[in-house]
# Entry
Amino acid sequence: MKQFLMIICGMYLFLYTLGFIIHQKTTHPVLKHLSKPVTIAHQGGNKVYPDESLLAFTNAVDMGLQVLEVDIHRTKDGVLVINHDQTIDRLTDSSGLIREMSWSGLQQVDGAYNWSPDGLTYPYRGKGVKILSLIAVLDAFPQQVYDIEIKQHDPPLESDLCDLLRQYGVAADQVIVASFSDETLTRFQNVCPEVATSLPVNQGTILYILSRIGLERLLPLDAVVAQLPRSFSTKLGQLELDRRYINAFAKGDRQVWVWTVNDSIEMRRMVNMGVHGIITDRPGILMDFVQ
# Structure
C-alpha cells in the first residue's frame, strides 16, 4: 500500500512538473497596455445608447473605457458589419438575416427604431442611427482596443476578418477575437495566428475539471483571455466562476474578463475574486467604480 501511494504521488508530481513545461507563456502584446481592472464596453454600452451604434462607442471612448466589445456578421456582398443578432428584427424597422442582405440594403433601415432604455420610450427612433461596418468603427477609433466576437459561423468569415485587420494595419496589440464556436476560433487562429483569441468553450470546461485537482497546467492553451459569465452552463451542468478557476487560467499571464456586470457592488465582488476585466452595459457605472 505504501509503495502504491508513493507511485501515485510520483505520478502526480511528474504531471504537475510537466504542466510547468507545457504551460510556459509570455504576456501577449494586447494585454501589456491594459490596466486592471480592464474596462470593456459591451456593445458600446447598450443600456445607455443603442446597441453597437456610433453614439454608444463614442460615449464609451470619451469616458475612457479601454476596450470596445463588438459582434460581427458579413453581408451577402462581403461587408463585415457590427450587429449582435443574426437578424435585424429586434432593433430596426425592418427584418431579415444579415448574411442574406446587401450593405446598401442595411443602410436603409433605422438602426434604433425599437431600442428603448426603459421599454416605454424610443428616443433614437428616426434619428439617423445606422448599422455600422467594422471598417467604419476601426476608422473612427483607430487607437482603441477591440474585443471582436464572431457571431456568424456559416458561411465562415474568419479569413475576411483577418484580411481586413491586416489591410487596415490594426496591430496585434489592439484586438482580441472571441466566439462561442470552438471551430470558428480554430479557423481564425489558423489564418491569423498573430491575433489574440478568447478561451474556447470546450477548453474552458476541461480547464474547470483540471483546476479542481490542481492539474490545470496540463492543458495547453492558446487563448489570451477567458470571457465568462458569473455562472455558465456546460456538459457538466451549471458551474460558478470562482477564484480557483480564475487562478488556473491566469497562470501564464492570461486574464479573465467577466460579463455582463452592471452594478458597482457586483463589480467589487468580481474584482475581489480576482477577475482582471469587467464587461458592462453601463460604462458610467464601471468608470465610477474604477475611479
About this structure: The domain at 27-73+145-290 is CATH 3.20.20.190 (TIM Barrel). The CA atoms of residues 87 and 230 lie 27 Å apart. DSSP finds eleven helices and twelve strands in the chain. The radius of gyration is 21 Å.
